[in-house]
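Appendix B. Extra example for self-study. Work through it before the problem class; the solution is given directly after the inputs so you can check yourself.
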Amino acid sequence: MLYRNHILISSHTADAAAIKERFERELAARKLSGAVKVISSPDLIDDSEETLVVVYPEGTFYRGVKADDVPHIVEEHLIKGRFVKELLRCEYDDSTVPSLDRLDFFRKQQRLVLRRCGSIDPEDINDYIRTDGYQALAKVLTAMTPAEVIAEVKKAGLRGRGGAGFLTGLKWEFCAREPEKVKYLICNADEGDPGAFMDRSLLEGDPHSIIEGMTIAAYAIGASQGYIYIRAEYPLAVRRLKNAIAQAEEYGLLGENIFGSGFSFKLLIKEGAGAFVCGEETALMASIEGNRGMPRPRPPFPAQKGLWGKPTNINNVETYSNVPLILLKGADFYSSIGTEKSKGTKVFALAGRIKNTGLVEVPMGITLREIIEDIGGGVQDNRKFKAVQIGGPSGGCLPRSHLDLPVDYDSLSQAGAIMGSGGLVVMDETTCIVDVAKFFLKFTTAESCGKCVPCREGTTRMLEILEAITRGQATLHDLEVLERLARVCKNTALCGLGQTAPNPVLSTLRYFREEYEEHILQHKCRAGVCSDLIQYQIVAERCVGCQACVRVCPTGAIRGEKKAPHKIEVLDCIKCGACMEKCRFDAIIRS
Amino acid sequence: MKAVEKTAVLTSGTVPKESLEILQKYKGGKGALIPALQELQANFGYLPEPVLEEVAKHLNLPLSKVYGVATFYAQFHLSPRGLYVIRLCTGTACHVRGSGAIMQKIRSELGLKPGETTADGRFTLEPVACLGACGQAPVMMVNDDTHGRLTPEMALSVLESYK
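Solution. C-alpha cells for the complete assembly:
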C-alpha cells in the first residue's frame, strides 16, 4: 500500500508508546489510517530526553512532543498542510522547510548506509522495497556474472568495516577462486567493543540491507548457505532479523531459485554466547561449530579453510550494508566519496562526554574536529577536551593536537589508533588517562581466551603495572617494562585481540606520558580519579556544621558537633566523594 | 515458571523431563552444542550438573567438552541466579559517565559482589562490558528492561521498583 505520509516517533522515553497510540487513534477518527503510517524507531539523536516526531516526506521534525499535542499536529500538519510552529523548536522562516538536515547534528553527515534507519518500518519488507530495496540483488542475479560483481566491488574500493580494513572485493575473490563446491558466507554481528553500537542500529533499523548484501556476496563467491553470528545481548536485533529473513523468504528473495536465476541461498541466525574474542574470525567459526571460541593461526585463511573446513567469507554488518548501494549506484559513484585509499562513508558511535551522542555517518577523510565539534556539539558542560578514544579496546587515545587528523584507515593507524568498528568516545579533563588505559586492559585481560602466552600473560602483567601506577606504587622502571610488554604482545600474539590489546597503553604512553610520570613521581592524579592518590578535606572556615555530609557518608568517617566545623577521618574515608557532591558550601575539597 | 521455583525442582538431583525433550531436537545436528545449552538455560535459568551430563550423552560428546564450552562463554551459568538479573554496563562510555559510582552504590546497598546473588534469590549483580546503548550512558538492564542516564540514587530507586 502507498502512504501519503510517514510519521516517525523517535524516543526512548515512556511516552513514545502513548504518542504512537494517540496518533493511530486520531488518524483513525479522521479516516486517515490508510494514508498515513506511524512508525516507532531507534533514536535518531540518542541524547534527546524528549520525544522527536518527524513527518515525511517533508522531513519536518517536532521536538518535545507530548501525547496531547498529537491532535494538533494531525489537524494542522496532516490535514491543513501547515507546520505546527510552536513545536518546531528551531529557527525557521517561511521560505524553507524546517527539516532534520538543518540540525547541526545532521548537516555534516552523509547518511548512505543509515539512510533508511529511522525513515522506514524495519519490520515491513515493503518499506524496504519501496526505497529501492532488493533492486541491486535483482540486477546482480539477472544481469551480472559473479566475476563482474567482484570486479565492481573491487573497483568501488570498499574496505572491511570491522577493523583491519582489508579490501572486500579482494577477499571475495580469494574465496571465489577456491574450487570446492560447498562454501559458506558469514556475517559477523558480534559487536562486542564497549562503546560501539552501529551494528546494533543497522540490524534493528535496516535488517534487509544486510540480508541483501549477504545474498549478493553469496552469489559472488558461490555460497549457498550463510550464517549471521549475532550477540545474544541484542534481543531486538535478533527478533527483527528473524522477521526480515522470514519475509524475504516469503517474497522469494531468499531461499530456492531467487528471481528465477537458479541461484539459491539459505540464511541462518546463530546467537553468540558472550565472548568478545568471537569477533575474531577464526574464533567465530569455532563458536558456530559448537566449540570454545578460540582463534587458530592463519594461514590457512578462512577463504581456503573456514567453517567446517570449507572456504568461507566473513564480513561484518556495516560492510554488507554497503554492498547493495555499490551495485545499485555503481562503483564510480561510490568511489567518488572518501579519500584516495578509504572510500565511502563510515558510521561512528559518538559517545562519552559530548553534547550530542548517537550514530553519525560521515564521508571518509572528514576530520575528528568536524565530528566532535560540529556534529557532536563539543564537550559537555563547557569542559575542556582531553582525548578521543577511537576503535574500542583495540584502538588508541588521540590528544587535542590530533583533532585535525583526517579520519581514514591509514591516517588513524599511523597515529596509533585504528578505525576499528567505529566507537568514538570523547573524554574531558575529568578523565584520567592512566585509568582509561587500565579500564581497557581490564577488559582485554578478562576477554583473553588464554590460548597464547603473549596475550594471556602479557595483558595480565600490563594490568598489574597499571594498577600499581594508579595506586602510586610504581617506579619509572615499571614504565619501561610496561612499554616492552606492550610491544611484545603486539608483535607476537596469535590473533587480533592480543595484537591490538596493547594499543590503548601504547597510544596513551605516546601522547600522555607526563600523566603517567605524575602518578609515579608525584603521586598525583590530575583528574582526581585514582582514589588512592586523592584525599578529601574539609575547609574549616567554610564548614557551617550542617551535617549533610555526615548523613551521606557511607563509612561514618566524618565527625564533628552540629554547627561547628567537621573533620574527615582519613583512615575511615573510602574516597567515594559523596560528601563533596552533597556539600552546598564548597567546604569539601579534593587534593 | 519463575527462576526461583525452577531451582527448587532441580535440587532433587533428577533430570527434568523437559530437558530430554529439548535435547531430542538437537541430536545429530552440526554445531548443536551451543544452541542446546542456550535453550536449556533459557528454560531452567542456569545449567545444573545433571543436565550437562544429559547433554553429553545425547550429543555424543565427552562431558569435559560440554563443561569446557559451558564455562568458556559468559552467558552460561552453572549455579542458580536471582529472579532479577542486574546487568550494569561498565563499558567505555558508561565508565566515562560514572558507572563506577553506581556499581559501588548497588554493591553496598545489596551487599553483593559482582557475580553474586542476594540471599533471598531476588537480585544477581552482573557487570557487562557493553550493552550497546552508549548514547544513554550510564546504563543498566534489569532482566530485559533497559534503564539509562542513571545516577547512583536513580539506580537504587529503579531496583526498588523490582522488589
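Self-check: Residues 33-44 of chain B form the longest helix (12 residues). If your reasoning did not lead you there, revisit section 3.
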